[in-house]
Specification:
Length: 139
Amino acid sequence: MVLPEPYRTFVAEISNGSSLGPAGDGGLQPLGWLPDTWPQLGPRQPGEPFPLKVAWIWEDDESVAPEAPDPRIDAAFNKGSIVLGSEDGPSFWLLLTTGPRRGEVWMVADVGAIPAPGDQAWGFEEWVRRWHSGNDWWD
């Protein structure tokens, strides 16, 4: 798997993670690291296809049985992405590494997965620019 640009260059030439990073809880995670609050849903598979093309709020999806694990949710957390960091505990910033939305930043949480800040998702550079400017993520 080849990391998307400009993240690949950032890790190779600037920094592999940062305690001052944009993620609210612990900074920008070094490549391959996971936040302490990351759910245990099986092994990470960043080279496998990311399963979503559009936002999916599984909390509102009646096809998701709340009492049984759903492999589609596990795949949204574990396939086709690297973890950039966490935000407010159970929400995580992902950089997609595969599929038609490769290079986009998404947020995945216990309720669903969405491109950030919406369907016209940011890439890594825009995500970092938002952090650096001090603007709220969703402005």
